Amino acid sequence: QAYNCLIHFYKRKFKMRTSLALRSIGFGGLGVRVRGTTKYHLSPMEQRAFAGALSTGLPNTLWRIRSSFFTTVPTFVISYLIYDSAEKEHDRLQRKQPGQFDHEE
After folding, report:
1. Between residues 50 and 18, which one has the greater pLDDT?
2. Of the four listed, 15, 24, 42, 51, which is most buried by Cβ atoms within 10 Å?
């Protein structure tokens, strides 16, 4: 009898809450409403994806290339020259020296 009374006490005191997902509110809907908030968005069908691409985008791209030319191109040129000289030196060192293997015959 006392055991049964204890179970009913805990059932009454600690009531488990079901989650919002189980109540079918939906993903992203947390049940919180904010009053006075207005959200605006444009439909993808109403947006112009390439608006100003030729009139402003192309000149801006050319200006960016021209402004960063002297900071990037010398680095690439020096890197290529170092790489090329290292490759040529490696190929030179891989060749046989004349008379290097004459004693093995």
Report:
1. 50
2. 51
